[in-house]
Amino acid sequence: MSSAPAPVELERPDIAEEVASDRPWLAIVWNDPINLMSYVTYVFQAVFGYPKSKAEKLMMDVHHKGRAVVANGTREEMERDVEVLHSYGLWATVRRDD
Amino acid sequence: MKVRKGRDGAVRIRFEPEEAALVRTLMEQMLDLLGDPPGADDELAAVGISDRATTPEDPVLARLFPDAYRDDGEAAGEFRRYTEMGLRDGKREAAGIVLSGLADAFGAPGGKDGAGSRAEKASRAEVELTTEHAQAWLRALNDVRLALGTRLDISEEWYEEAEGLDPSDPRMPMYAAYDWLTMLQESLVRAVW
């Protein structure tokens, strides 16, 4: 991701991914050099209704680890989420949890 | 260019005329790239389904409409058949919202015959956006940045690379446009948030 100069809050480790085994499909967002860190955080809040702290943590995971699981659920739900993320220009994919 | 948010929640962007002209040109190029909507006689298209399921060859289109499955070409194709048309419509709509916002503020661009179009204002003007329209602007500006960034093969170190370019390099105007759009988008995100 690209960063315009912006203050970034420190990572909060307590908000981990809550992947339940009965929700076996994942929506994943991948790092890219074009999308802005601020925009990606904004999209996570707008699309998923996540609080800012969780949206920022996910954004930082994408930035530093190259990708992050941003949602889990049924395959249909994850395809719907990925379609919405594509409408915002994020690079998102679906896969089964393993 | 200056972005601010009023007490009423509306976002206002003040553009110099040449900035507005740049945004307009880029949005028109995006509409050209996205192509025309399907004809009314296409029955599958009427329900939002396309018969094309392959990843676009143009790297910009492949970035705007990425494969939704990395290791499953069949699933990626099916996803594309059912979603790409709607996504294209959404991107066309967002670019259209930007163009009409600019036309409201600056007047329609002067056509060759000049008939029926207001004269383009030569001074700066302000675009006023509802939250919904500001979100469409964010998406449309991001689509244009994705297109420019993909054409330039932008990396996270692009700024240093651009600084090392010869001023006469033909890519310089694209880098400048990309840089300016990045500032505009950053300001707009912060105003909308």
Automatic annotation (TrEMBL), chain A:
<dbReference type="InterPro" id="IPR014719">
    <property type="entry name" value="Ribosomal_bL12_C/ClpS-like"/>
</dbReference>
<dbReference type="GO" id="GO:0030163">
    <property type="term" value="P:protein catabolic process"/>
</dbReference>
<dbReference type="GO" id="GO:0006508">
    <property type="term" value="P:proteolysis"/>
</dbReference>
<comment type="function">
    <text>Involved in the modulation of the specificity of the ClpAP-mediated ATP-dependent protein degradation.</text>
</comment>
<comment type="subunit">
    <text>Binds to the N-terminal domain of the chaperone ClpA.</text>
</comment>
<comment type="similarity">
    <text>Belongs to the ClpS family.</text>
</comment>
<feature type="domain" description="Adaptor protein ClpS core">
    <location>
        <begin position="22"/>
        <end position="93"/>
    </location>
</feature>
<keyword id="KW-0378">Hydrolase</keyword>
<dbReference type="GO" id="GO:0008233">
    <property type="term" value="F:peptidase activity"/>
</dbReference>
<keyword id="KW-0645">Protease</keyword>
<dbReference type="Pfam" id="PF02617">
    <property type="entry name" value="ClpS"/>
</dbReference>
<protein>
    <recommendedName>
        <fullName>ATP-dependent Clp protease adapter protein ClpS</fullName>
    </recommendedName>
</protein>
<dbReference type="InterPro" id="IPR022935">
    <property type="entry name" value="ClpS"/>
</dbReference>
<dbReference type="InterPro" id="IPR003769">
    <property type="entry name" value="ClpS_core"/>
</dbReference>
Automatic annotation (TrEMBL), chain B:
<dbReference type="InterPro" id="IPR018561">
    <property type="entry name" value="AosR"/>
</dbReference>
<dbReference type="Pfam" id="PF09438">
    <property type="entry name" value="DUF2017"/>
</dbReference>
<protein>
    <submittedName>
        <fullName>DUF2017 domain-containing protein</fullName>
    </submittedName>
</protein>
